[in-house]
Structures are given as structure tokens and as C-alpha cells.
Write a structure and sequence with these properties.
Elements: H1 5-8, H2 30-38, E1 44-50, E2 56-62, H3 74-78, E3 92-98, H4 106-120, H5 130-136, E4 139-144, H6 149-152, E5 172-174, E6 179-180, E7 196-198, H7 222-233, E8 238-245, E9 250-251, H8 260-277, H9 294-302, E10 305-312, H10 319-339, H11 345-348
Parallel strand pairs: 3-4, 3-8, 8-10
Antiparallel strand pairs: 1-2, 2-4, 5-6, 5-7, 9-10
Helix pairs in contact: 4-10, 5-10, 7-9, 8-10
């Protein structure tokens, strides 16, 4: 593996106003991500691309990749009589992705611990998760431990205990003194960097919000291009895009730009996972979002079911709870896929 020590020198996370210090197993800083990936022995590591800041964007894979039908893309097969040829039907491939919005560190932490489980049988707390490991044996697994390494280079370790008013150090501030806050920040793509006084953690160093870099024919960031390429190269069946919200963990509504079968899968997994953790569903199974993002681009490129999972970033609770809830989510996805194809491509196209 390449030595990125020079890039890692003098990195200092911006401090937000809260009083909760992370435990040692909550590894989310750039040098820790690189160290954890460099220690991988049972999996395979690939540098997909580099960020504008020069940091590596890693993929870590586990499980044998079975031979595929041949050189074909999903849009071509949607017009064929055999769309199931897109992927080897003897294998399902899951992709878990973290850190597109770099202040949302919980997903990065989860994949660090999952890598430890896959490598050693215990996570970075020294805790085993045998059921999750048994389920994982049935899949080809693709992990993107941290996509926005630029933002993570100065992102805080966690936001637990913060209020939205504490976000100043990690928000984008323009030279006129205006802070770009959600959802107004979506009025710019990419950021007008000549007007930026302080860059926020949503963005790479070129001012691109990778989550929204999803316009066909105009994908502009190396990171988004890499996500789409590996999703296609791996012929993934399911992608979980890990983010963090405020007080409650949840799956985001599937978007209206989706195959009906995948739409139903997201809702079914959300319902099963919610029952497992004792969470009350806040919406019905017809709910949808009209926002278009990288999930939709991946679905259009692969036919995979894609979903965004949000951790409860601000909720004050034991650090372990955040990880255990994520493990329950991963188990739910894998259990669901053991009972039926996550992306039954022929059925997805049936009218």
C-alpha cells in the first residue's frame, strides 16, 4: 500500500461544542482509516481513485467474485429477454458505503469495526458478532470505508450531544458571512469556491457534494465516478449508503426514480429492521422522496436496490448502541437476501 503519511501530517479535526469523547474503537480519522485498510489480509484492497486533496478512496472486498456473463451493461439488458444475465445469479453482492458527508462519522466507524470482524472474528471493541459473520459468508461484500476523505481530514470524530447551533466549525461559510445550511446549501452545485471563506464537511476540496453528483452525462467528481464504476464492475445487487441524521436512526424514503420492486424492498427491510430494534415506523410503505442522488445513479447503472441508512448522530446514548443498531441493520439486509434475491432483475422489469 502507498504511504500517505505526508498527507496525514498535521491533520486536526475541527471542534464542535459537545462533551462526549470517542472511545478508542471509534476509529474515524484519516490516519486510522489508512492504518485499518493497510492491515487487511483476508480481504482485498483497491484504491479506486484519489480525492482532490490527494487522499485515497478505498474499496475492501470479501468473498470470491464469481465469473460474470460477459461485457454488457444493465441498460442494455433491460431491453433484452434475459436481464438476469447482468450478474451471476449464484451470488449476491452487497456494497456498504460510508463517509460521503464527512461529519457523519458513524458509518465510517461501523465499517472499520466490520472490517475487524471479517479479519479477526471480533470488532475493535473485542466483541464477536457470530450471526452477522455467518450471514456475511453467503455474499460477495464490497466496502467503501470513507468516500469523502477530503472532508474527513478535518471532520469531527462525532456529533453526539451537539445542537444544530454548534455546527459552525463544520459548515460552509461564504465570504459575505452567510452560512450554507440544509437545505439551502443544495442551491449550489458545485460550490462557487471563489466565494467560500470556510469549506464545510459535506464537500470535497473542489466543493462537490458527492451525494448529489448524479446528473447523467455530467458526473464531475472522481469519487462519484468511482462509486458508479465499482458498482457496475461488481454487478452489485444492493447498496447501503450510510449517513447520519439527528435524533433517530432510520432508512430514508426510497426515491420515486426507482424500479417498483426495489421500492418495495427498501420498505420491507425498513419495516423488519424497525421491528427488530423496537422502533416505531414514522411513515407508510407508499412514502417516497423526489430527490435524485447518487443512489439513483447506481440503481440506473446496475438495477441494484439502493438505500440510505441514517444513524442517530446527535442522540446522547452509549457509543456501543450506535454500532449495535448498525449491526442489526446489516443483519436485516443480509437475512432478507437469504430468503429472496435482493434485486431479482427479471421480476423488476415485469409489468
Amino acid at each position: 500500500m502507498n504511504d500517505y503519511s505526508q498527507l496525514c501530517k498535521n491533520l486536526v479535526p475541527r471542534k464542535v461544542e459537545h462533551t462526549y469523547e470517542r472511545p478508542s474503537w471509534w476509529r474515524v480519522r484519516i490516519p486510522e482509516i489508512i492504518e485499518d485498510v493497510n492491515a487487511v489480509k483476508k480481504g482485498k484492497v483497491e484504491v479506486l481513485t484519489h480525492t482532490p486533496g490527494g487522499f485515497p478512496v478505498y474499496a475492501v472486498t470479501y468473498g470470491e467474485k464469481l465469473p460474470q456473463h460477459g461485457p454488457v451493461n444493465w441498460p442494455s439488458l433491460t431491453g433484452s429477454r434475459r436481464p438476469e444475465l447482468y450478474t451471476n445469479t449464484k451470488q449476491q453482492t452487497l456494497m456498504f458505503m460510508a463517509g460521503i458527508h464527512a461529519e457523519e462519522a458513524e458509518g465510517v466507524m461501523t465499517l472499520s469495526n466490520f472490517i475487524s470482524l471479517m479479519e479477526t472474528g471480533v470488532d475493535r471493541r473485542g466483541v464477536a458478532r457470530p450471526h452477522l459473520m455467518e450471514l456475511a459468508k453467503n455474499y460477495r461484500i464490497v466496502l467503501l470505508p470513507c468516500v469523502n476523505m477530503d472532508g474527513r481530514s478535518f471532520g469531527p470524530d462525532c456529533l453526539m450531544g451537539c445542537t444544530p447551533e454548534d455546527y459552525g466549525p463544520i459548515q460552509t461559510r461564504l465570504k459575505n458571512g452567510k452560512y450554507l445550511v440544509w437545505p439551502d446549501l443544495k442551491e449550489y452545485f458545485p460550490l462557487p469556491m471563489d466565494q467560500v471563506d470556510q469549506l464545510g464537511t459535506y464537500y470535497n476540496f473542489e466543493g462537490v457534494n458527492i451525494q448529489l453528483d448524479a446528473a447523467p452525462g455530467n458526473i464531475i467528481s472522481n469519487e462519484a465516478k468511482a462509486i458508479l464504476k465499482i458498482a457496475h464492475d461488481e454487478r452489485i445487487d444492493c447498496m447501503v449508503n450510510m449517513h447520519s441524521a439527528r435524533e433517530n436512526p432510520h432508512f430514508v424514503h426510497p426515491t420515486i426514480i426507482n424500479l417498483p420492486g426495489n421500492f418495495k424492498t427498501v420498505h420491507a427491510i425498513n419495516r423488519i429492521w424497525s421491528e427488530k430494534i423496537g422502533r416505531k415506523l414514522g411513515y407508510g410503505e407508499e412514502a417516497c422522496s423526489v430527490q435524485c442522488d447518487i443512489n439513483d445513479a447506481v440503481s440506473l447503472a446496475t438495477g441494484a436496490v439502493t438505500m440510505t441508512y441514517e444513524f442517530a448522530a446527535l442522540r446522547v446514548e452509549k457509543f456501543d448502541n450506535k454500532l449495535e443498531t448498525a449491526y442489526a441493520m446489516m443483519e436485516t439486509v443480509m437475512e432478507y437476501g437469504m430468503e429472496r434475491p435482493l434485486a431479482p432483475r427479471k421480476a423488476l422489469l415485469s409489468k
